[in-house]
Amino acid sequence: YDYETLLQNSTFCLVPRGRRLGSFRFLEALQAGCIPVLLSNSWVLPFQSKIDWKQAAIWADERLLLQVPDIVRSISASRILALRQQTQVLWERYFSSIEKIVFTTFEIIRERLPDYPHRNGLTWNTSPGALLTVPTFSDTPRRFPFLLDTLAYAPGLNYTAVIFVQIGTQLTPNTALYKLVKSITKSQYVDKILILWASDRAIPTRKRWPSTGHIPMHIISGSTSEDRPSISQRFYPHEHIETDAVLSLDEDAILNTDELDFAYQVWRDFPDRIVGYPARAHFWDDSKNAWGYTSKWTNYYSIVLTGAAFYHRYYNYLYTNWLSYLLLKTVQQSSNCEDILMNLLVSHVTRKPPIKVTQRKGYKDREGGRSPWNDPDHFIQRQSCLNTFAAVFGYMPLLRSNLRLDPVLYRDSVSNLRKKYRQIELVGS
């Protein structure tokens, strides 16, 4: 028999003691998704003070070896599935590399310090695990997007719209930015609007902006070219962002109010993911032995551009405070790829793809004209960024999906509520 094949096709793996109490077979079983059956009395498993090994392993008394077959046969199918799933969570989050083992050790030591926040067992034993649940963000589990389903909580109401202005064309009632602000103010879920002005042009006076009514609007800018905001500032955890949901927009995004409201409703059902409209895809290019990036319409996607997307504000905190300096430096030097990096970050945390929602048929990604995104070098640069990011992460976190959620069918009775989002359904609206 081939050992690796046999291991990966086994449901239970016997792990007797080695020369001492422990055995390398334990980690082999975890990696293979095989439920370890431990035969080593008094063995203290790794990180046992934080990890609940009863959710992933079976104990048997090494003095009663013949009882093992009866023990494993008595385990129900649902319990077997839960145990195998947990082996993968623990292996992936804490044991799959020397780096993770070291960082897990540091985190356990850090929690013993007097003033450092303490994470409960749910955080340690639920994906994405303690290494990606930064306690300095919040001391309440319900503030983290991936723990909401586990705790039976819903995300907080309403969203903060963050518009990143890099070109800064003249503001008139016919420009995309003006129309975008108007569409946002009509949304029933918007809490406030945040304008991040990263253009060399002067900020328009307040009277040139459309009236936002009771919706607060804040403008954050750099006054000179020396302190011009980095393109990563769009993902900075600004103090004005108090809602769980963040709507990230480019200045030339063309979205109406129905599109905003529908995407927000979808995001509330998937608060741990990026939910939005323009999608892209990655692929492996054998001819170049490298990752490729494409904007062609295909049956699948793996990236939802943050020029028109919702995500949880926790990812702003991770992007700014947790990501490797090398990743942020790559974005800063290229003034590009920040949206790709955010997608890699969210997929790395959740191990899930983003979600694309269906826009109206007259939708186009961007207006023509003097846009840096129309530059051919921009596309080549994004492919280069993608490969740099994958190299720093150590693998490719992006996952493919062919799911597209349509407002006609999503949570609606088609016969009664077919026209709930009329602005999206009308052709050329």
Description:
With 429 residues, the chain is α/β, with parallel strands linked by helices. It has two domains: 96 residues, Rossmann fold; 247 residues, Spore Coat Polysaccharide Biosynthesis Protein SpsA, Chain A (Alpha-Beta Complex), CATH 3.90.550. Helices cover 33% and strands 15% of the residues. The protein contains 15 helices and 14 strands. The strands form three sheets. Strands 6-5-4-7-12-8-13-14 form an eight-stranded mixed sheet, sandwiched between helices. Strands 1-2-3 form a three-stranded parallel sheet. It has a three-stranded antiparallel sheet with strand order 10-9-11. A hairpin with a 4-residue loop joins strand 9 and strand 10. Helix 2 packs across helix 4. The longest helix has 19 residues. The radius of gyration is 25 Å and the shape is elongated. The chain starts with a helix and ends with a helix. About 3% of the residues have low confidence.
Break the fold down into its secondary structure elements and pairings:
Layout: H1 3-8, E1 12-16, H2 25-32, E2 35-39, E3 58-59, H3 68-73, H4 77-95, H5 98-110, H6 121-125, H7 148-151, E4 159-165, H8 176-185, E5 190-197, E6 217-221, E7 245-250, H9 257-269, E8 275-276, E9 279-285, E10 290-294, E11 303-304, E12 308-312, H10 314-321, H11 325-334, H12 338-350, E13 355-357, H13 376-393, E14 404-405, H14 414-417, H15 422-425
Parallel strand pairs: 1-2, 2-3, 4-5, 4-7, 5-6, 8-13, 13-14
Antiparallel strand pairs: 7-12, 8-12, 9-10, 9-11
